[in-house]
Structures are given as C-alpha cells and as structure tokens.
Amino acid sequence: MKTFKVVIATLVAISFLTVAIFFLIGFLKPKQAGIKIETLPSATIYLNGVIVGKTPFEGVYKPGETLIKLVPDGDGKLLPFETKVKLLPGIKTLIRREFGTTEDLSSGDIISFDNISSKDTSLIAISIPENAQISLDGVPRGFTPYKTSAISPAEHQITIKAPGYNDRVMKLKTLVGYRLTIFVKLAKSSQNETLENPKNTLEPAVKKYVEILKTPTGFLRVRTQPGTKGEEIAEVKPGQRFLYLETDPNTAWNKIQYQEPRPGLPNGITGWVSGEFSKVVEESANNATGSANTTI
Q1: What value does the mean pLDDT of the chain take?
Q2: In whole angstroms, how far apart are CA 266 and each of 168, 188, 259?
C-alpha cells in the first residue's frame, strides 16, 4: 500500500513538473511580432529582400528591424514603396499604402502600439508634411508632430489634413497602458484649374481676408479650434488682415492663415478667431497684403 502511494505521489510530482517546464518554456520564449499590410492597388511584398506574398497580407515574424518593399501591380507607372519598421514582440504593426505615380501623389500610414507600463492612454502622430492639423472625433487638437496622454481608451476618428493635400481619415482604438503611434503620409491634391488653364491667370483674382476689429482688450486671441475652449496659439491686433479659410457654422468663428508657409514650416500656421471681433472682406489679389509673418 505504501509503495502504491509513493508511486502515485511520484507520478503527480512528475506531472506538475512537466506542466511547469512547458509553462516556463512558453513564458520565456520570445513573443512573435505581427504585421498586416494593405495597399491600393494590390502589390507584391518583399520582407528583407524576400518575396512573402501579395496584399492584402497578414503574418507573424521575429521581432526586430525589418525592411519592407511594396511593388504595385500594373504597368510600372506607379511608384513602389520601401521603408524600415521595427516589429515589436506581441504587437501587430499595420501598414497601408495608396500608390501614386510620384511620391507627392502617394499616401499611406503606419500604425503600431507600444506597451508603456502604466495606466495612461497615449497617442503620437507624425506626418509628412509636418505641421499638419490633427483632429480627434472632429475636434481640432493641434499640429503634427502631436503627442497626448489625455485621450480616452475608445475608438476614435483621427483626421490629418494640410492645405494643398488630401485629408486622411482613420478609425483607431486606443487602449489603456498602450501608446498608439501613427505615421501618416499625405498625398498632394490635384492641380488647381488655374494652373491647368493659363487663361484664368490673366484675370485678376479676388481673395477673401479676415480683418480684426476693435476689442475691449486691444487684441484678439487665435485658437486651435472655434470657440473659447480652443487652445490659444497667438494674439492679433485690430486692423490686421489674414487670409480667410472658412467660417464655422456653429460658432461663426473665422479660420485664418495666421502664418505663411516657410522653410521648416511648409504649411504655415492656421487658427480660429471670434466672428464677433472680425469680419470677412474681399480684395483683389493685386492689392492683397497676405497674412502676418509674426512669430508665436
């Protein structure tokens, strides 16, 4: 009887030891990294110089820096795309690309998550061109490069836009304890009709400007979004004029080109001013004064 009990105890101990060994092997084994690639049109995928398939594509690979090349299907007029990404263990990286005939006419994004070992929910947005406006759920939040930890863990609509470029809209879910990183490449919009038809350039164009009116404080705040909840980015004075961009129908605030594009700031700076203390005026392009070149 004692021998039987010893055998049973030994078998139980061996079973627990076997389970523990397999658990440790699985726990200590490095996690693989996921990658998902979507393109328009479809493309052949090279990972570190090796063909792995065509888009749409999804696979699992060893973590580390990976060279990715996408060659679009077709007659060769579309420009291939090549980039290096760092694949992280246990994280899926999403790459999307819409091919164009040139780099300027191509667009796409690279989306990934990082574990930040905290209870925060974080977002980083980087774009080409720089200083593109980022909106979260339809509310302008600032300009790229953009970083925030004040974002709720939920599905959000993220819009990146810049003058002269096509908007890029994404629906992404943020998670507690993770940093969502998005790298966005915007495509330039098609040429204006005035460039395609030289006859139009002979006629004097009429532009709209926003003129700042008198205020009780002697200045008017420029904000990142229409309404007083927008973050203040500058102050303008009565009498100044800025290129008019649009009017918000809900608040009647006017959007202005506060600062002209310049090297290092290709899209300049845009902002919103109260419609109560500003008015929209029309002026011939020959007499236009343009936006102020003041710095913040």
Answers
A1: 80
A2: 18, 13, 10
